[in-house]
Design a protein that fits this description.
The chain has helices at about 10-20, 25-30, 35-55, 85, 90-105, 110-115, 125-135; strands at about 60-70, 75-80, 120, 120-125, 140-150, 155-160, 165-170. It is α+β, with helices and mostly antiparallel strands. Strands 1-2-5 form a three-stranded antiparallel β-sheet. Strands 3-4 form a two-stranded antiparallel ribbon. It is elongated, with a radius of gyration of 19 Å. The termini are far apart. The relative contact order is 0.15.
Length: about 170
Amino acid sequence: MAEMTAISAQAVAQLREKTGLGLMQCKKALAETGGDIEAAIELLRKQGAAVAAKRVGREAKEGKVVFAVENGATAAVEINCETDFVASSDDFNAFAAKAAKAIAAGKPADLEAAKALPVDGTTLGDVNTAVIAKIGENISLRRFALETAGAGEHVETYSHMGGKIGVLIKLA
């Protein structure tokens, strides 16, 4: 049996602040890693990947289209989840905004390239895995479109039905 290490409330709060996960999940990870915060973060990351792998097969029909403009490029990004409740949550919307901003800035060629884009010191794919672990639903980057306005052109966005439908319009 592993020796129990006393875990301070301050350490749990610090880990929770860094990961955004629940108190008990953070306390358990710290207990398993002997109070080492960095090791606990790595353990939680691996656990999150396992949770995400279990969720991948679940159907994600809800979600929204979000827009971002970076360095002259406008991105429309469709992010899907399992329920409309999650689609309106702060965590989902924060992830969607980060995804759209990263895609507009990075201008990837396809979804795999988008998942490799840098976000928060890691990749968009890893941030996606972390939000799945935190929320507990399958959340996926489904597709995106990019437009860049040239000389004499203008790109506008249109969102309908609370973000369920989104359009990029390029005017010349």
